[in-house]
Amino acid sequence: MVEISYKSKEIWHLFVHLPYLCASPVNETCMADFFKHKLHLVILAILFVFLAGLSLTSDGYYGGADNISHYLISRYAFNHPSLFLYSWGRPLYTIISAPFAQFGLHGVKLLNIMLGMLTAWLGYRTAVILKIRPAFLVIIFVAFTPLYFMMMPTALTEILFSFVLMWSVFLFFRENYIASALVISLLPFARTEGFIILPVFFFALLWVRQYKAILFLATGVIFFSVLGSFYYNDLFWVFTQFPYPVTYHHPIYNKAGSLWHFFESRHSTLGLPLEILFLAGITGMVRDCFSRDKTIRHRMHLLFFLVVTPFLLYLVFHSLLFWKAMGGSMGLERVLAAVTPLAALIALKGYDALEEVIGQNRHARNIFLAAVIGIVLIIPFIHNVIPFPLSPEEKIIKESARWIKSSRYAGRVVYFTDNNVPFYLGLDPWQKNPASCYLFGDAKYLDTIPAGSLLVWDAHFGANESKVPLDSLLLNPRHQLIGYFRPDKPWITFGGKEYDCYITTTLPAGLEADNLTIRDSLLEITGAKNCIDTLLVKSFEQPGDGADPSLISREVVHRGNFAYLMDGRTEFSPGLCTYTKDLKIPTDSSLPPTVELGIRAVVYVYLTEKSDANTLLVISFENKNKPYSYTSLNLNEQNLRLGRWNRVSLAAPLPLFKSPDDLLKVYVWNPGKQLFYMDDLRVERVSVFYK
Question: Do residue 447 and residue 545 come from a single domain?
Answer without folding.
Answer: no
